[in-house]
Amino acid sequence: MTTPAPFKEVPHRGLITIAIMLATIMQVLDTTIANVALPTMTGDLGASQDTITWVLTSYIVAAAIMTPVTGWLSDRFGRRELFLVSIVGFTVTSMLCGLSWSLESMVAFRVMQGLFGAAIVPLSQTFLLDINPKERHGSAMAIWGAGIMVGPIIGPTLGGWLTEAANWRWVFFINLPVGILAFLGCAGYLPRIPRRLRGFDFFGFAMLSLGVGALQLMLDRGGEVDWFSAAEIWIELGLAITGFWVFVVHLATGRDTFIDPRIFADRNFVTGLVFIFVIGIILLASLALLPPMLSRLFNHSTVLTGLIMAPRGVGTMISMILVGRLVQKVDARVLVVTGLALTAWSLYDMAGFSPQMDDTLIIWSGVIQGLGLGLVFVPLSTIAFATLEPRFRTDAAALFSLVRNIGSSIGISIVTVLLTRNTQINHAELSAAISPFNPNLSALSPAAAAGNPTALAQFDQLVNQQALMISYVNDFKAMMLVTLLAIPLALLLRKPKAAGAGASAAVHMD
User: Fold this and answer.
1) Cβ–Cβ under 8 Å, residues 162 and 174
2) Residue 391: which of 193, 257, 248 has the closest Cα?
3) Are the CB atoms for 76 and 197 separated by under 8 Å?
4) How many CB atoms lie within 10 A of CB 217?
5) Around Cβ 45, how many Cβ atoms within 10 Å?
6) Domain extent listing, the chain
7) Per-residue model confidence as pLDDT tens digits over 452-484
8) Cα–Cα distance between 64 and 474 in angstroms, integer?
């Protein structure tokens, strides 16, 4: 193992950080900001309710396929150059998305947007680790994590406001000034990194792309086609298993693979991948559940829903500011366990939701969950890379982002399926009690017991409401169990000092 060079101070570190985070937030926002604009897009683009979802699917699949190859592209063309091209490409394709005239043109531009945007998040993490000395890694990851985690929270609210106040096209046009500022800042101050030529493993990339692309298609399309009752899902599942299996065998037996298998020898990094997978499930799955719940059960508008969920982002910001300072003084494993415990507590509170309550418990549980996820994300992002050699950092950051995104997709799919199925089951069980032979029904509503259509319709509405609420509660309980089961994994993490100091003592420009 080579001894790392001493850290060299990077000028204009503050300006570089601002420019990098502008690009990162711009990209992360686009994972959720367009969701609320889909109904408006449907008419303008001549699409149906089934086909408009390709606006989201095309972006997700394209970004997932391109994320793992970030390390090779940065070595081949230069990390700085790749980041600048990604910002320009993402900004230009965002403008083209806003100018789309049909569903086909929108999907084509969204694919391009996903391809260009895939490298932004892993490269931003790599740059922030590179330009900061080891003792500032916690603070750097706090800043980076704030953008990664707060972005999806404010995305739907910002998208809803832009759609109502102006037009759905501004959901994409808003990226133009942000992208220009990010490009100018990065072009002016981002340091150049020496290139490192290495061959490209086309076979390995093709197999991983097949696995990731098929899995993302399956997870995104499953709800639309009733999952395994459709041949499409079985085909995509088979392709995903085949792609991942062949890639793993190729990685274990091949030479010069585009992802160095020695990355997986680092226990902290592998454990970090497992944790970030769980965080992906909890963060975006809960975000996927709460807005429709507030709309369907509490009749809240998009703007009011955003205001109610905003404290969750505030909790995350506060937590990350504090943990950025604590991570150098407190054992990261203690912070991770504390964060998971707070997250489980918030989900326990969410399991107590009812249609008759006000918004206090929703806000309070959101703040606790924001605090918990922030406590987990920053030390996890720091310790996962603390014992990893700097030359593996870009590949590792790409895998880190990929696993987080896959976790998010799987989490959203699981809670959505459970919500739909449990609602049907709960409705059937509750409605079974609506019978003229039930004395409680006769005492409560003689008209319903006598078969009055208006009274029965009112009872059916109440049954639908209760069945849906019970299903949401069941989802929150399931997520709480996943969180609790992840806590013992913290024992697998090692303190950076316990690992070879030579591998992690200094952070430098490769």
Assistant:
1) yes
2) 193
3) yes
4) 22
5) 20
6) 1-200, 262-510
7) 677 767 777 788 888 889 999 999 998 899 888
8) 30
CATH number of 262-510: 1.20.1250.20
The pLDDT value recorded for residue 445 is 67
Q: So what's the pLDDT on residue 498?
A: 41
Give residue 94's pLDDT: 92
Residue 434 three-state SS: coil
**Contact assessment for residue 378 and residue 323, using Cβ atoms and an 8 Å cutoff:** yes
Q: Write the pLDDT tens digit of every residue in 120-156.
A: 988 888 888 888 887 777 778 778 877 777 777 777 7
How far apart CA 183 and CA 91 sit, in angstroms, is 9
Please name the residue that has the structure tokens 């975000």. 287
Where the chain has pLDDT below 50, the residues are 1-3, 498-510
- d(CA 171, CA 175) in angstroms, rounded, equals 8
Short-list 286, 287, 214, CA closest to 35: 287
184/6 Cα distance (integer angstroms):
29
- pTM reported for the whole predicted model: 0.77
On the question of a common fold for 1-200 and 262-510, the answer reads yes
Dist CA 68 CA 64 (whole Å):
8
- Crossing angle of helices 70-77 and 79-98, in 10° steps, is 120
pLDDT at site 282: 77
Contact 258, 205 (CB under 8 A): yes
The string over 479-504, giving b where at least 16 C-beta atoms fall within 10 Å of a residue's C-beta and e elsewhere, is: bbebbeebbebbeebbebeebeeebb
Predicted local distance difference test score (pLDDT) of residue 7 = 56
Exposed/middle/buried for 270, CB within 10 Å: 0-12, 13-18, 19+? middle
365 neighbors 314 (Cβ within 8 angstroms): no
CATH for the stretch 1-200:
1.20.1250.20
pLDDT confidence of residue 435: 66
CA separation (Å) from 469 to 34, 293, 431, 474? 26, 8, 15, 9
How many other CB atoms are found less than 10 A from the CB of residue 91? 24
Distance CA 236, CA 221 (A): 10
Residues 207/239, Cβ–Cβ less than 8 Å: no
Q: CA nearest 310: which of 366, 271, 272, 258?
A: 366
pLDDT for the residue numbered 490: 78
State residue 506's pLDDT score.
35
Residue entry with tokens 């420009």: 509
Cite the beta strand spans of 22-150 per DSSP E: none
Residues 10, 129: Cα–Cα separation, whole Å: 12
